[in-house]
Amino acid sequence: MLTRRMGSAEAWRDTKVGMWAWLLQRVAAVGLVAVIAAHLKNPFARPVQAALLALVLFHGLLGVRAILLDFGLPVRWHRLLFLLALLVGVVAFAAFWRWRWY
Amino acid sequence: MVLRVFRWSPGSRERLQKYWVKARHGMTVLDALVELQRNSDATLAFRYACRVGMCGSCAMVVNGRERWACRTLLSNLARGPVTVRPLYQFPLIRDLVVDMAPMKNKMLEMKAVFVPGRRAMAGDEFAQIGSRSRERRAIDAAIECIGCGMCVSACTMVGHDPRFPGPAALTRVFTLQRDSRDGAHAGRSLAVLAEDVLTRCHGQANCTAVCPMEISPTDSILALRRRAVLRLLGIGPR
Questions:
Q1: Which residues, 6+ apart, have CB-to-CB distance to B20 below 8 Å?
Q2: For residue range B179-210, what is the model confidence (pLDDT) as tens digits?
Q3: Nearest chain A residue (CA) to B84
């Protein structure tokens, strides 16, 4: 039986949007564990604050996307939802950071 | 054009063999394979039947994506060598031919077989569900599955968890659970509530992206999941 060897370039050649959305949310979750630990050591470090905000937004909004699909939004919208999650994340990050809403 | 074709037979080593094919206008991957088999290498094994995008038996992985070889034009592929592999997640028989039996077995495990219920007959006639009825429209797309196996090959969860039934079996379950003539809803509901079934789908929609019939197995699985939750809460259909 052949399985995709994720170490090969060919396995990633046709990675689809849904897979990226799922994967990036998991990567953001792992990143959050490290950044939260750094944040607890020094809550005032600006780069850590920025990373924490970005990862929380990214992870949370991709989670909202998954919940919406779970609750019955048609799967054909999933690419649009992914783009929306990224867009809202970037806008929210800029707004939080610019006006210091944290 | 260079084709890199996966070769394997029992007792030999897996390898990608290079072939040169003169690409003609309108030539498909299947045309190229047939030409190779006729003119260059008669030992090359692959499966096909209708040649016109109906049966799904020429499903292969071309340049990393599941496609039916008969509908994939060489001119539509990215420049450079074309890599042709057999479907993933299926036992290999030889070269590009895989054994589709595991997909059928998963369907049987999930009880994805029609069992006539009390409403199966209308008098002496088999009961019909109108083509415009709500019940029929809910499964309209899903019943078009041709069993090509591309969704199973594209699913990362099938590769990760051998007990996961896969998108094809669950799509079949979905159509049966929505069929009022079927009499085995309760048993099937229990089967899909097992640990490695509905909850295992990560919703990546790889299956939906590659389905040549434009079915969305992801939608079917999510619908089954919602139905299961309602049933567990005691407010949904069996």
A1: B1, B2, B3
A2: 999 999 999 999 999 999 999 999 999 999 99
A3: A10
Question: Binning pLDDT at 50, 70 and 90, where does residue A101 land?
Answer: low
Residues of chain B with CATH 1.10.1060.10: 101-232
Q: How far apart are CA B17 and CA B7, in angstroms?
A: 7
CATH 3.10.20.30 occupies which residues in chain B?
2-98
B202 touches chain A (CB under 8 A): yes
Pairwise CB contact (< 8 Å): B64 & A70: no
Q: Say what percent of chain B tops pLDDT 70.
A: 100
Confidence band of A10 (pLDDT split at 50, 70, 90): confident
Residues 6+ apart with CB under 8 A from A48: A35, A38, A39, A42
Rounded CA-CA distance B156/B147 in Å is 18
CATH of domain B101-232: 1.10.1060.10
Question: What global pTM score does this model have?
Answer: 0.92
What is the residue-wise DSSP string for B78-119?
PSSPEEEEPPTTS-EEETTEE--HHHHHHHHHTT-S--B-GG
Tell me whether residues A19 and B92 touch, CB distance under 8 A: no
Rounded-to-integer distance, Cα B34 and Cα B95, Å? 14
Q: What is the ipTM, given to two decimal places?
A: 0.87
**First vs last Cα of chain B: how many Å apart?**
55
B2-98 maps to CATH 3.10.20.30: yes
Q: How confident is the model at residue A6 (pLDDT cuts 50, 70, 90)?
A: confident
